[in-house]
Amino acid sequence: xxxxxxxxxxxxxxxxxxxxxxxxxxxxxxxxxxxxxxxxxxxxxxxxxxxxxxxxxxxxxxxxxxxxxxxxxxxxxxxxxxxxxxxxxxxxxxxxxxxxxxxxxxxxxxxxxxxxxxxxxxxxxxxxxxxxxxxxxxxxxxxxxxxxxxxxxxxxxxxxxxxxxxxxxxxxxxxxxxxxxxxxxxxxxxxxxxxxxxxxxxxxxxxxxxxxxxxxxxxxxxxxxxxxxxxxxxxxxxxxxxxxxxxxxxxxxxxxxxxxxxxxxxxxxxxxxxxxxxxxxxxxxxxxxxxxxxxxxxxxxxxxxxxxxxxxxxxxxxxxxxxxxxxxxxxxxxxxxxxxxxxxxxxxxxxxxxxxxxxxxxxxxxxxxxxxxxxxxxxxxxxxxxxxxxxxxxxxxxxxxxxxxxxxxxxxxxxxxxxxxxxxxxxxxxxxxxxxxxxxxxxxxxxxxxxxxxxxxxxxxx
Length: 462
Description:
The chain is an alpha/beta fold. About 40% of the residues lie in helices and about 20% in strands.
């Protein structure tokens, strides 16, 4: 795969301060496919200084011109969609059709949505005898994960640029190649030098330096809740804005009378998507006791179909972690009805699609985020019991409700402590806000709510 041997700062590729590199490994066969610089704190400082220098000019750029640059970025990404998909497949292990349909297509749509929002958003309004201004928050430090490596980049960078902010991006070390491709696209789209900067590197080095840098006004982070706590503490000490999209343990609640077969099949597909490496995955399926055994049989049969459809996990550590959770589920008394901890292939970081039955709410696999193709099926007695189980974790990122009548599902969803709920298989909406309750994070991404994260408010009284 093509890889730059430098970092992108102030509109140009330049050597990193150190000589260390990060090898990029294809998780399907464990082959090294490239290497990128392991950026240092000095590289981060150089990038932040470039972003600060570019901030006044970009903040003063008319929204229509910012929208034009974002539209150009969308078009460049669309022209390179095949390369994007192939790159994500190589460094993440995602099957190519999924990379094309999700990892490439969704970021292009999101970039386009912010091109339109930048042109139409009301950045200034009259409120009584005041003029209220929405101004860019400043320099953004964006730290992105490996599981949706381009989508998460675009979901942070596009609204930041639309708002008039400048950005320093530190992508995940497992999937940096598509971030380099994105930097090329930004350059080709004509975004001015210094407005966007890319420093590849390790989280504890480059990521921490970016979060701690006094020249960064907002840190936007997507990743684990544990790291989110650290970044939140750093931001709190510096009194700087923070946006955190963290873990999840989402409930898929199937109410009595719902189309059970459809709810189970869609639910299994949701969990197996991206090899289970999705923070919003519906990893807990809640089924009424009267149809529990039927649901378990349907889920086991559905999961078996994914054995040759899903890709590997991203790295050896993730594979070991997920297999450990499966072993713990068995040890705590859950019943395996599909899959298991054994690796299905000799090479690569593969885990079998796994389904547990007889899971109780207090089990580890029902409480902690596994981040792999593992589904837990829990039984409930009545709707109040289902609600108690659904809300009974520290997370609140997403979820689903299925019912015979839409109004019944909506009434239940309104009581769920979570940031996004799909009703009877509702479709993904790139304009709807995404983010969590409780320990699933702070702030929102996508649409107008995502743009608002990168703005601060000023009022002028007359």
